[in-house]
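tool_call predict_complex ligand=zinc ion
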Amino acid sequence: MPASDGWCPFATARPITDSGNFETGRSGQQAKAVVLHIGEGPLSAFFPTFNNPARKASAHFTVGKQGEIEQYVSINDTAYANGLRWESAAGAAGGIWRNPRGVQVTPAWKGLINGVNPNYYTISIEHEGFFGEPWTEPMYLANLKLLQWIRDQTGLTYARGDALIGHNDFDNVDRPNCPGPNAPFDRMIVDLSGGDARRAALIAGANKIGVPLNDQSALAKFALQNRLGVPLTDEFQFNVNDAAYLGQVWSQAVVYVKVGDWGNVWRT
Ligand SMILES: [Zn+2]
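tool_result ok
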């Protein structure tokens, strides 16, 4: 764990004083992942909620739409943001996970430690706003800066679904849209991995072989994310059962998407 006191120097510290809403220390665990949330409310609502003895909820941070960063709990301590309860049972798995409402869930995250509440080994970041809203650029950049600071403190290596996850990766029943489809995980991963140079190299390389590349298109983003090599053609249209598709040949696969369904890109 961090050598520091776990308080981010560029965040506004608002330590919660209700000791029932967080736990000092991590019960012997270490942070294994950062969990992103969407708060479904304005920035001003978070601190009062997390300091309310009746709520038993908190997060380490909230990032606001204007790029504000508030911190409520040291990352050396345990916030109550994505808790699950383990229930021992006979059988190969040895037990099941239940969410705070007591409903059985099927967590997608493979980092869970059977029997140990994930709050003990995660760091949670809330975000201002609602899941249907796109992230503002200041919120994106502040979140990125915070992720980089957390990485410096913990040594985490971010990968989507591993050390960088969403609340929905724990609770697929009550939190399927936390943080929701507008949380730009792919962009974060690219930016956190020094992806700007990789992007620039890809565009320059594609231009070199005569392919104009819009690296912000759905197909190119998918191909870049999945490391499908270099684009060999411009995008082209084709039809399947009267439905229009857009495709592009990359050196490792053909990538394609149904026109309008831009979130669902496929590869051959
Ligand atoms: Zn959440």
